[in-house]
Amino acid sequence: MKKANQMAEKMVAPSKDKTQDKIQEIESINKQLVGKKSNYQHLVSDVISDAKKLGADQVAVSLNAGLGLNTTVRMGEIETLEHNQDQSISLTVYKNKQKASVSGSDLSKAGLNNLIEKACSLVNFTQSDPCGGLIDSKYLAKDIIDLDCYHPWALSVEESVELAKATEQAALDSDPKIKNSEGGEVSSYQSMVVYGNSHNFLKTNFTSRHSISCSVIAQEGDMMQREYEYSVKRCAEDLWSPAKIGKIAANKAVKKLNARKLKTQSLPVLFQADVATGLISSFLSAIKGSSIYRHTSFMEGCLEHKVFPDFINIYDDPFVLRGLASSPYDAEGAEVCASYLIQEGVLNQFLLGSYSARKLNMEPNGHAGGSHNIIVSDIKEKLDFASLLKKMGTGFLVTDVIGQGVDLVTGNYSRGANGFWVENGEIKYPVEEVTIAGNLKDMFLNIINIGSDIDQHGSIGCGSILIEKMMLAGS
C-alpha cells in the first residue's frame, strides 16, 4: 500500500534508467499505428479506385485503427485488465444520387473486395436522394494544422494497476466515512483515422485519449451515497494526480450524506459547472442540421434570433491544442473554422454537414460530426462559484441530474436531481429525490450569470449556470 500512496501524489515519472525503456515502448506503439500510415493510405486509395471501377459515381472511405489498455481495481484487487487492438473500415458509395454504406474489420484483399462488391450491389436498391453525395470539393480542407492531439502513453500493465490502486486508496484514506468502493480505473487509447474520398482527398489524423477515474461510497449509519471523479486528457502528463481524483470523489460522497427532501416550490436554481455542460450539450443537439430539417428541434426557426441573454457568447473552436474535440477537418474532410454559435445571445448558425446544408438550402460549415471545443462565456461579469451562490441568495444548487427527461422537440425539461439547499449565499445541507422542470427556451433566456469556474472534464468549457427561476417538485 505504501507504493500506492507514493504514486497517488503524482503521475508516473520514469527514472533515468527506465527512460530508454519508455522510449522503446512509445516507438512500439508508433510502429503499430504511425508505421502503418502509408500502407493504410494506399489501402484506402485502392478501395476508392476499385469501387469506382464497379460503377460508383462517388466514394468515401474511413479506416480506423487503435490500441489501448483499460485497468479496473476494486478494494485493492484487480477486477479487469483489457488490452485492445482494433481496426475497422467503413465504405460509402453513391450512384445516381443513391447511397449505400457498409463496414467491416477484415482488411485483407479478399475481405475488402467483398466489402466493395456488397456496397456497389446494395446501392442499386436504395432510394435516390437529390441531396445525397459527397461534399463539394471546394469545401475540403487544404492546410492541415498539427493540433498536438497525439501523445502515446507508455503505460505498462503493472503501472496501470498501481495507478488505479493509488486513486482508489487516496479516496479510501480521505475520510473514515468512505466505507466501500466501486473501483479505480485507468484507461489509455491511441488511434489513427485515415479518411479519403473520390475528390482526391486523403488525410490521416492521429489522436490519443487517456483517463483516470474513481467511484466510492460514503456511509453514515444507514445512509449511503455514491460519488465519482475523473480526469481525461490527450496527454497523460496533463491528467490530474490520483491523489486529487480520489480526494475529490471522497469529498463529494461525504458531503451528500444525510440528504433531505424539499417541498414543491418555484425558486432560483444554480447548475454546478459539470452539470451545466449538460444544458449546453442539449443546445448543441438542438442546433444540429439533422434536427432542424427533420423538424425535431425546439430551435427550428431561431436562426438570427436571440435565444440567450445578450451577455452570453458560445464559441466553437476546433483548433485548441490538445483539445478533446479538436480536429483539422470535419467528418467529411471539410475545412473547419473557429466561430461564434451564439454571439451576444443571438444564434448565428446551425451545425451543418453537406447533407443537412442541402436539405436546408444553406452552406455547410465544417460541422459534419457535430461541434468541436465549446467555450461558453459571460461577457457581463466574471463571477466565481462563491459569488454565484451569494448572487442566488436562497435556492437550489444542482450537483447531479438523473434520467433522460429532455425533449428536444418541445424543449421541455424535467429531470430528477440531487444537490444542496442554499440560504443567504451559503450551502446549508444536501438535498435528494427532487425533480426540476422548465423549458429549455425559457431556461436559456432566464440565465442570470455563467460562472468563471469552467468545467475541465470534456470538450464543453462552461462555468456554473444560474437560472432565475425553475419549478422544483419535492415532497
Annotate the secondary structure layout.
Elements lengths: L1 H7 L7 H17 L4 H17 L4 E17 L2 E19 L2 E7 L4 H14 L34 H18 L3 E20 L3 E20 L2 E11 L8 H14 L9 E7 L1 H14 L2 H5 L18 E6 L21 E5 L2 E2 L6 H6 L13 E6 L6 H8 L2 E8 L9 E12 L2 E14 H6 L1 E4 L9 E2 L3 E9 L2
Parallel strand pairs: 7-12, 11-16
Antiparallel strand pairs: 1-2, 1-4, 2-3, 4-5, 5-6, 7-17, 8-9, 8-11, 9-10, 12-13, 13-14, 14-17, 15-17
Helix pairs in contact: 1-5, 5-6
Description:
The protein has 11 helices and 17 strands. It has 475 residues and is α+β, with helices and mostly antiparallel strands. The chain folds into 2 domains: 2-255, PmbA/TldD superfamily (PmbA/TldD fold, 2-Layer Sandwich), CATH 3.30.2290; 265-473, no CATH class. The strands form 3 sheets. It has a 6-stranded antiparallel beta sheet. The protein starts with a helix and ends with a strand.
Q: TL;DR?
A:
The chain is α+β, with helices and mostly antiparallel strands.
Specify the CATH class of the largest domain: Alpha Beta
Give the count of structural domains. 2
Inertia-based shape: globular
| Content-based structural category | alpha+beta
Low-confidence stretches: none
**Second CATH tier, the architecture of the largest domain:** 2-Layer Sandwich
- Summarize the main sheet: 6 strands, antiparallel
Estimate the helix proportion, in percent.
25-40%
Strand content range: 35-45%
User: What's the number of helices?
Assistant: 11
Strand order of the largest sheet: 3-2-1-4-5-6
Mean pLDDT: 94
Annotation keywords:
PmbA/TldD fold, 475 residues, alpha+beta, globular, 5-stranded mixed β-barrel
